[in-house]
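Run log, item B.
One chain of 445 residues. Sequence copied directly from the ordering sheet:
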Amino acid sequence: MYVMREKVSAFVVPFNRAAVIGTCLRALGFADEVIVVDKSSTDDTPAIAARHADRVITVPWSPTADDTCAFALAQCAHDWIVFVDDDECLSPEAVRLIQAELTAPRADVYSLPRRDYILGPHDERAYYWPEHHIRFFRRGAVEFSATVHACVVPRSDRVLQVAADTGVCIHHLSHQNVARWIEKTNRYTSCIDRARVEHTGSDPIGFAHERIDHWIGRTRDATSGGYPAAALLRATFDLIDRLKVWEEERGLDGAALFRQVCADLDAAYGGTAPARAGNRRTATPEVEAGPSAEAILCARLRQLRAQHDAAVGAMATRVSAMAIREASLRTSCSPRRSRRTSLRTSCSLRRSRRASLRRSCLPRAPRCARLNTVRPGEPRGGRGVWLVGCGQADDGMVGGGIPSGGSIDPPMSWPAPGAAQRAAGRQAPTTHGFLAGDTQVVESG
């Protein structure tokens, strides 16, 4: 089933981007019209662009593309516009999103997350992720100005900011090395019409510290082994921009000062310089060939290997010293453990002696006496009664004061032995009660 969609124009403004422009334009292949406005490139950029674009327009070079975007927009024929910088490539997810929005638009302006590749890699812990940039809009919803880093001005409130976790993004292959960053920084900060870094006060040193802290603070991994280079480069941009503003504030003109110095020196030399013949010719000096790039790289690798080996050796030395220290501590701790064991043994012996002393101090076992009494109806020589008392027998008295050879008066009635007792023969004494304090009457078989 065919679905109607809005038509879209795409444009790019490149300069000397032969390494990237092919991929950049292939991502825009879905557009109904592709326009390239080349800024007088000196490499193969125009030839590569001609294979992927409907029109290639050459214009004079200028330091940035921002002052050319309005011209490029005027060349577009359709009402929906998608544009990218010459070092940007849309992700496949971004292409599918734009195609879907052309069928059923939800906004007038679309802001996409941009994945910056600085010094090679993209790191989502760095300060720049996810920064959003407008790259797709309806005609009239966006205007372009010539101000560097502030050229895209939205004119509609219907802005859709695409989430960073959808896969939709702009791949920004901007700075492959530090030299490229410095060159671009110098070019951009030399433009009079640019978005300048906000600052307060007149202390460039304090400003430098503040910007480093600012960008490092936005980096989610600021450890030495992390990815702080991007934050430091970004702080360098701010610092260079601030120093150029500092120059302007003081009205410094180094070229004029140099001319004045030369004039003063010429006057000091005095007289008129003698006329010279001034013969001119071209020559090629013989220069001793230096080491090749490969040799320099190999030497650098050897240096790094030596540093690595030295670090490993130092680590091994520290580990060995720690092991010796640990063995020494263990040796010094062994006599202490022996003393603790000896103290434990000594304490155990003392506890044993204390326990023995406690047992010797306990009351003596109770004495027992056989009563020469006969229960009613029971023949002599049968069961007797024992009195058990905790007191010392004295003058023939046992426990509660019953004579050892006497009888209980009045007579006590005793229960007849049970069948189980008769069957089992002699049984263990059975307690029936207490007499006279601590004296206990016990039945005995």
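Observations after the first pass:
- The two ends are 115 Å apart (CA to CA).
- Confidence is low (pLDDT under 50) at residues 367-375, 378-416, 423-445.
Flagged for discussion on Thursday.
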